[in-house]
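As described in the Methods, two query proteins were run sequentially through the folding procedure within a single session, without resetting any intermediate state between them. The first query and its resulting structure tokens are shown here.
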Amino acid sequence: MRYLIILFFLRYFKEPKLAPNKLKDEKFRDTTLTKWCDENLSKDLNQNCTYILSYDNNYRIVQYVFSGCTTCKNHPYVLNIQYNSEDKPVRFVYFYGSDRVVSAEDLAGTNPLRPILMEYLFSYSENGELVELRKFDSGKMSRLIRKRDD
């Protein structure tokens, strides 16, 4: 249920961009899966692309890697997802490139060789309701979406 709000943001605001369509899957725990973007195409990065999904011990996606490919002209990127103690996503951090090793320095935004490309921060009310989404591009806030008080 908690991810329905994020899906609402995706559907109506097109944010957060480049995110997986679900953040938890009870079938996968402490594992990493590689999926081809189009199973009907050749398994060749010159013609196809891959998604790599890494799950933690709570069945949550903690890393999402897109390989990029020559056909789709998209660049490879890595998305790291951080959760709070209530199991809700609080931060999406994007980096260019397909290097899956992300250091604390990378996540802090202090690595000059691997700057944060894009970042989303999610804020929740005391009762656990998602009330705000902030988007940052290259460290500058570019979008703010807040739930209206009724």
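Immediately afterward, the second query was submitted; its sequence and tokens are:
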Amino acid sequence: MNITLSLHDRCASDRQPNQNNPVLDVRVTGPEFSLEENRMALLRIADVAEQFAAHSREILHLVRQPTSLGRDHFAVLWSRGIGLVAFYGESGSIRGSRRGAWLLESPAHVRSSFENPFETLQNASKELESLAERLGHDGALTTSLVAIFNGPVREIRVESGENGQPFASMTLDFALARNISHLPNLLRAMDQKSQALTNGEMEILAEAFERNAFEHSETNARHDRATQVSEVDHMSIRGAISGWQSRRLWAIPSIVLAAAIVYYLVRSLVHAPSVPKPETIQKAAQRSQAPGMIVIELPREVQLFVSPRMYQSRLELDRALEHGEGERFLPATEQIVIFDSLTLAKGVYGYFKVDNAWRKGKLLQTFQPADTIHIDNFLGPLP
């Protein structure tokens, strides 16, 4: 993918890190991966990237799930290149080329095929191209594609094919291996040998990729919820029909039994006092866990991150975002926060991203099932 940028007007002051404002050398953002082995793999990659950044004094951005690709993947942004990386769990001997399905021979010598990683990543990279093209035209930028196999792979043989978009396939251990200058093989696969992005340009691109990632995440979540509701509705209908059919067999005996009960009640003239039925502990617990809602009205569109914890610094907040803690909302002038009523009664903290800086947390608290909070001013930036 070849894309062009013209960010120098906006980012001239960001070419060098601000020494008075220490930031993370490696920033990991975006929705969490679906598979645990891929989460652990990314943690190892981030650890090696931090070691490289400590020696090179560079800043790297790793943005999880930046496209609609249907597998765990992430984008890499650093001064000498940009990459799109996807994880594959296949094991055994792997052979392929840039066109057509790849062949897999398992350790049990069973042969099969799977989707072509190059074609899949190339299609996904077009989404990043579309995002980057909105930033103008100035210098050319090439996105490298990398397929990482984090299963027990015996060998990988991939034909180089024609010259075109850079592509590499490797095992996780090979991707983590470093040369004498601490440059991991993963970054070497996307190294353009010269400066491709400034720190400010990386920040803007990472923000756009991250926003796209959360939009896809929310779309997928809504689709999953709709599917679950549909399945529940079908089950309820089938259950109702089945129950009605079974109740028909018991209709006559039930009527006779009800008539007998009424007869003996009238005959005995016993009127039991009306005593309110005490609630069980389970019902009380369910009521305490009932959902509560806070509607936040804002003067402008801003991102929101909500957590029961109070973070004292940007470093703590970045780590929380990296580990997928709390709940993050896309920019909007009205945000709807839903937690159980007990949590909202204790209070949660809302962190707003204003002018590209996360602000100190505001306490969001209510004792009502639903409440509205109007915010005119934001707190100062996190140190």
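The longest strand covers residues 291-307. We note this only descriptively and draw no conclusion about the first query from it.
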